[in-house]
Amino acid sequence: MPELPADLHELERHLLDAIATLEPTDERDRAVDADAEIAVPLDQIFGAQIDSRLLDHTARWLRGQGHGFYTIGSAGHESNAAVAAALRPNDPALLHYRSGGFYCARARQRPGHDAVGDVLAGMLALRDEPIAGGRHKVFGHRDLAIIPQTSTIASHLPRALGVAFAIRRAGRVGVEGAWPGDAIAVCSFGDASANHSTAQGAINAAAYTSYAGLPVPLLFVCEDNGLGISVPTPNGWIDATLSNRPGLGYAVVDGTDPVAVFHTAARLAADVRSTGRPAVLHLRTVRYLGHAGTDVETAYRSSGAIRGDYGRDPILGTARALVDRGADPSDLVDRYLARRDEIRERAQAMSGRPRLESADEVVEPLSPRRPDLVRSLASAAADPEQRGTAFDGKLPEDAGPLTLAETINRTLADVLARTPNVLVFGEDVAAKGGVYGVTRGLQKRFGAARVFDSLLDEQSILGLALGAGVSGMVPIPEIQYLAYLHNAEDQLRGEAASLSFFSNGQYRNPLVVRIAGYGYQKGFGGHFHNDNSVAVLRDIPGLVIASPAHPSDAAPMLRTCVAAALADGTVSAFLEPIALYHTRDLHDDGDDVWTAPYAAPSAWSDEHVAIGEGRLVRDGDDVLIVTWGNGLYLSLQAAKQLAAEGVSCRVFDLRWLNPLPVDQLIDAAGDVDRVIVVDETRHSGGVGEGVVTALVERGVSVPIRRVSAVDCFIPLGDAANLVLVGVDQIVAAARHPDVSS
């Protein structure tokens, strides 16, 4: 054995000393016999494992020199390299941040791919890093079918469910998906993350869907190192919680035995592939080097316990299997040391390469816009024969004035008829047609493969949509009420909006989330059916928020959102005011002001509403009222009352809450005496804060007042009127510029 470098980490020294003393064991015959049926690529696995381990050590070396920016490593988890070797290189993978061995092994299945260069570039935050372009260190690459994940505690598991679902669903709806029809999806996560509601929901949803008889070819890989940062996982907990779930296969294997890991993973993957039934591979691992470079592991573990785990090193297990096959231990040590020198030299050479240098560079892939293409796509309809079939010969443009709900329904039908990879789903949307009948009749006309009910779990609904979107579909999921979104919003913040950003635009999840919301619903309500909080959505970078109030806007805006999803992978939240769904009249019974005829396709281009384009609904000279949603309805009523008093009101409908139509807003405020912002969301954190800020920042100097809802949850019954904006408040604020509510 050669003399070891003086700067070896204690873990490295123990590993190389142990490898050097290996001798063939009586397991040699077992290894050879086991390989007779399926050859285990031990040499490739070993190479991937040492690359991953050396990258972890190099990350800390770089950080010490002030060059590197990421030290959460995979040391101890390298047995996942054998899992990758057991799968196909085009099986889509969504990887935990400790899956470095998997990434390196998958790269070895693609000759010429440079996994080490990829990972080093990520650690160094280089501008030419091949997946995130220096924005974050993630495991991802299009050529490797690895979808990048930032993995905020299992947040990628619902998307993995969606990817698996979409693999088989693409064939059912007759479109070409992003993955082979016989592929399986694989996602990895830690034992501590298994306790998170997101993980439990995704695992349950996969089992539920499988139990219901639908294929979900998904392999969950729980990499169990027994620790959640400093908190130990109780012995046997993962077995107890995951091993006996209906609809879910399960197998457990020790990561120190690469032959067993390979065969167990291959057997489980083959079952998932042939049956479409999801499964869990419980991979017992060990964690080295603490949670990350900043984690002082000795603060919560004894030195003896840390060193005691050295004997469980998966690389040592693979070296042992190689020696049983005839490898020379000293050659394996030499291989490690030579690779160590090579990777350090590369890291040093790469450290001077360019990084992101401007805000424009950073945000470039966040939310691309091609408005001309969006307009073209939004203006295209199915051919007349297809439309005739879709509407049973009763075209919506011949039906007379329609309500908001009716308009959205007809628009969804037009979108489904025009675009075969569109899916509409959510709670109660199929046979029932949704709580408010907005999707009524769509399943009957377009089939259960494209319009279907989901289980009652918003995280799974959004995850299903994210996975379908990245797999070549255009999902339009429904969240039944705005209040129900909040327990799942990280699927939009941490997963949907971030994918293009963390893949430099290489992966997209086109998505239009329909959300029934806001207040003013009469008859039954309370907070969970009347929710006026949209602040969490406006805080998500790149997310488009559409909020049509009138039927004449709903159709073109929904078509725009779908077209933007197709053109640019845009993620949109489409907020629909429940209280206006079936409203027909504005001022007097039978006036039908809150209805509109449905435009024929020949008029769609002229009626197109671009993202971020507001509308002047009523002109006037004295007061500008800026509003949207239910506020538009109330403001128009107030404007009529004020006109009778001699106050002339101009009413501007924002229509889009992100991006706000700031330029049009400033133009509208140009020659009035005062501005009233009517904000049906809450006074603190409401949309109105952003509107007022935009007006002030752009130099509007007239008095600006805000009428908004009280900082309160919305109660039942008539008490709701005590905290929501009313017509009288708007009139008072417009009548007296110094009065604010």
By helix and strand content, what is the structural category?
alpha/beta
Distance between the termini: 81 Å
Mean pLDDT: 93
The largest beta-sheet arranges its strands as 10-9-11-12-14-13-18
Major beta-sheet overview: 7 strands, mixed
User: How helix-rich are the residues, as a percent range?
Assistant: 40-55%
Question: What is the H level of CATH, i.e. the homologous superfamily of the largest domain?
Answer: Thiamin diphosphate (ThDP)-binding fold, Pyr/PP domains
Query: In CATH terms, what is the architecture of the largest domain?
Result: 3-Layer(aba) Sandwich
Description:
The protein is of the alpha/beta class. It is built from 27 helices and 20 strands. Strands 10-9-11-12-14-13-18 form a seven-stranded mixed β-sheet, sandwiched between helices. A six-stranded parallel β-sheet has the order 2-1-3-4-8-7, with helices on both faces. The radius of gyration is 29 Å and the shape is elongated. The model is unreliable at 31-36 (pLDDT under 50).
Task: Give the key terms.
741 residues, Rossmann fold, 7-stranded mixed sheet, 6-stranded parallel sheet, 20 strands
In short:
With 741 residues, the chain is of the alpha/beta class.
